[in-house]
Amino acid sequence: MTSRKRLTPEESRSSALEAARGLLIETGPQSVTLKAVAARIGRTHANLLHHFGSASGLQKALAEHLARTVCETIIEAVRASRAGLGSAREVVDLAFDAFDREGAGALTSWMLLTGNEDALHPIIETIHDLVDEIAPEEADHQCNDMRVHRDTLSLVLLALGDALIGGALAKSLGLPRDAARVRAQEMLEASLAEYQ
């Protein structure tokens, strides 16, 4: 009989979140259950209940985890872009990939459909914090020009919509699959050019 490695509470939680993220990406948000995550990491359902309280708690923690890891990557790209080391397209691709390949779009729609809208707060708050860090002059909302806030709203909505229906809609309209990414890139480049 092999014994399981004893993990610290943080290691156990982190392992569960990575397993949940894998399930989300591979098979969709409906598969992110306590039972499925427990089976994937070789833990018990009760162990995950201890860490997350419920399936809803797991999903909320997954939203926080996704938001944090994705926004950390995006902010690095924004910093590089502002320093002349990156491009608007890199920022766009990171945002679109977060909602598509990383599963944030599917998780968002699932949370809305199941009435678990509270689980979306971490994503929204993390994006808000990201914008406040990028544009501190807009943080108090006293600034007349809320350009970064508007650009972020447009980018996130384009990325979310693209993740949910972009492929089918682009095909139906006879547009290339990356048409929404190109449009988002053009929007960001125009906005940056206006303020340089």
In short:
This protein has 196 residues and is mostly helical. 72% of the residues lie in helices and 0% in strands.
Features:
mainly alpha; globular
Written overview of the protein:
The protein has helices spanning 9-27, 34-41, 45-52, 55-82, 88-99, 104-113, 121-134, 147-172, 179-194. Helix content is 72%, strand content 0%. The chain is mainly α and 196 residues long. The chain is built from 9 helices and no strands.
Helix/strand-derived category reads mainly alpha
Estimate the strand proportion. under 5%
Strand element count: 0
Largest sheet, in brief, is: none
- The dominant shape is globular
**Poorly predicted segments:** none
The sequence of SSEs as H and E is: HHHHHHHHH
The level of helicity is over 70%
Average predicted local confidence, pLDDT: 84
Oligomer: single chain
Q: How far is the first residue's CA from the last residue's CA?
A: 66 Å
- If you compute it from the alpha carbons, what radius of gyration comes out, rounded to the nearest whole angstrom? 19 Å
Number of helices: 9
List strands and helices in order, with pairings:
Blueprint: H1 9-27, H2 34-41, H3 45-52, H4 55-82, H5 88-99, H6 104-113, H7 121-134, H8 147-172, H9 179-194
Helix pairs in contact: 1-2, 1-4, 2-3, 3-4, 4-5, 4-6, 4-7, 5-8, 5-9, 6-8, 8-9
